[in-house]
Every structure is written in structure tokens, then in C-alpha cells.
Design a protein that fits this description.
3-stranded mixed β-sheet, YefM-like fold, 3 strands, 5 helices, alpha+beta
Length: 90
């Protein structure tokens, strides 16, 4: 994560916000008082919140682990030829 001073951020506000939006990389802004803050797009913040929710939900994490194990063992769902034809519209 890049870091800039609050003064540099204020002087280049539009460019730095556009950079955060365009690159999807957060920007840490430092203050002399030591109270830093982070600038990021709302879309990226929402994505981070969703990730935190999933990581904190033990049942959901177990479902993901079970699904991954099934996939790795190649025991996943395999449709019949008739189902494949229906799916593909043939």
C-alpha cells in the first residue's frame, strides 16, 4: 500500500482518488498526530467486508473446505449427456 502525507493528499486529492479508483489499490494517508487513514473505493471496501464475513463464518468456511476437497478428489457432479444437451441447447 502506498503512503502519502495528508498535505500531499490534500494538494493532489482528485488525482489520488482517481488513482485509487482506477487501480483498486488503497492509499494510506499519514498525519503528524499519527492518526493515519485509508482511502479506497466503495466497491473495494464492500468486497473486503464480504471477505471478512465469509472468513468469520465457520459454517460457510467448512462448506468451502468440503467443496474444495470434493473438487480436488474429482468427485464433483457430472451431468448426464441428456442434461448436457439441455444445458447447451443441442
Amino acid at each position: 500500500m502506498d503512503t502519502v502525507s495528508v498535505n500531499k493528499f490534500r494538494d493532489n486529492l482528485k488525482r489520488m482518488v482517481d488513482q485509487c479508483l482506477g487501480t483498486h489499490k488503497p492509499l494510506r494517508v499519514t498525519r503528524r498526530s499519527g492518526e493515519d487513514f485509508v482511502v479506497m473505493s466503495a466497491e473495494d471496501w464492500e468486497r473486503e467486508q464480504e471477505t471478512l464475513y465469509v472468513l468469520q463464518n465457520s459454517k460457510l468456511m467448512q462448506q468451502i473446505a468440503d467443496s474444495t476437497a470434493t473438487h480436488d478428489a474429482r468427485r464433483g457432479y457430472e451431468p448426464t449427456q441428456e442434461q448436457m444437451d439441455e444445458i447447451t441447447g443441442i
